[in-house]
Write a structure and sequence with these properties.
This protein is mainly alpha-helical and 104 residues long. The chain contains three helices and no strands. The relative contact order is 0.12.
Amino acid sequence: MTEPVRHERTLLTRILGHAAMRCIEAFVLAWIVWFAGDLTLTAGEHDHSMWAYMVQNGILEFWEHLFLVRDSAVRGGAWWLLLGCLCITCFMRYRVKLRSLLEG
């Protein structure tokens, strides 16, 4: 029998993989936080279909604020939210290694 070929990942590939996963997790967390906050703040304003409002704003509004809104303060706030979520996801992923590094 032949042994299966095992591909060893290089250090750069591993680092890029970890960075990509943390960025994806940060985008998802930021979208959830934005969606929950937006839904909470505007819950009583719309008497028509709340489901339609949730779908419309939950899917589009966060991405519009990241890339399409011309107001730099609004766009900057969305990016700061994303950066904060990236810090949270990185901390949650690497907290054990960070604790062992800091405590020696």
